[in-house]
Amino acid sequence: MIPSVLPTYNRAPLSFVKGEGSWMIEADGRRFLDLGAGIAVNVLGHANPVLVNALTEQANAIWHVSNLYEIPQQQALADKLVAESFADTVFFTNSGTEACELAVKMARKYWYEKGQPEKVEIIAFDGSFHGRSSAGIAAAGSEKMTKGFGPLLPGFKQLTWGDVAAVNDAIDDKTAAIIVEPVQGEGGIRPMADEDLQELAHICKENDVLLILDEVQCGVGRTGKLFAHEWAGISPDIMMVAKGIGGGFPLGAVLASEEAASGMTAGTHGSTYGGNPLACAVGNAVMDVVAAPEFLADVNRKSGLLRQKLEGLVASYPDLFEEVRGSGLMMGLKCYAPNMDVVNAGYDNEVVTVPAADNVVRLLPPLNISEDEIAEAVVRLEKAAAQVAAKKD
Prior knowledge:
Layout: E1 16-20, E2 23-26, E3 31-34, H1 37-40, H2 49-59, H3 72-83, E4 89-93, H4 96-113, E5 121-125, H5 134-140, H6 143-146, E6 156-159, H7 165-170, E7 175-180, E8 183-184, E9 190-191, H8 194-207, E10 210-214, E11 238-241, E12 252-256, H9 277-290, H10 293-316, E13 321-327, E14 330-335, H11 339-348, E15 351-352, E16 354-356, E17 360-363, H12 371-392
Parallel strand pairs: 3-15, 5-6, 5-7, 7-10, 10-11
Antiparallel strand pairs: 1-2, 2-3, 4-12, 8-9, 11-12, 13-14, 14-17, 16-17
């Protein structure tokens, strides 16, 4: 008999009932160090008082009005995002998947309004993850994402990750945009080199093609810059964000230049819940903390500490781990042993990590994790590694 919750998840046998900063408390009382942060969502940890206060204050005022009316909290958050980024305008969604849908629509509508309706194709890369909507899975193109869900939305082609030289050959008269994650998350914590991102931006400019960046997982301070592409010194035309922007409350957004968004006029897109007062109240509080230069500097300092300790772990267990990869507090342990063995051993030792493709274990802690918590997390990871090694022997 099918369970009442559709069985599309392979859930760990854990029930967390409370969160405190970088910690989650299981129903039986065990305290787990959280290096997953709800898959890069809880950027300020669990039950952060700044976010709790923002949400509570807004909840006591007004919850939902729809986008038929002005929403002051939405306007304030849009203004902050525009001030802190390349963008001139923002559309708010509830998730990264919804942000992907709009990014695709925006790119195609742009060329339609320019009198070039044939420009509908979008170039993506293997190993990518752009959500689970029809557009998202078609962009990713992998069998895992698309099998059984045909016919797929047309207009996407996939290139090999890192093969920027192939992009020029792939562009033709139908190419509308290139979509890329500066750091692939689900794909195995694979950062695109700064020079490759710079070359992609150059190719787009030279060929009159829009550049869409998917920063749903790597954005909002995760890499030590507010947005990951800033390390390469480039600017996209369109960018998707979500996850961390809501600090645990469902919120996403599409940021765009005035030119790229020029086709999106009244009635061309909408959302009932997108940019609601509750979500935007929390989003404003997140931005007030995470966009501060001193906060981002602290992320970089702590990421250096975590990487150093993880490199030591890899050196101690060369038969289990191949390398540490990633940027900022978005790190991955590339494994020789099955990555789920490491994740499950972590659960046994009360530390939470997240599996990814390419046999990688993701480490995505809250950005305000303390140095002592980083040290304790690596102690627990080392115990997990010892457990996997003992079983392997």
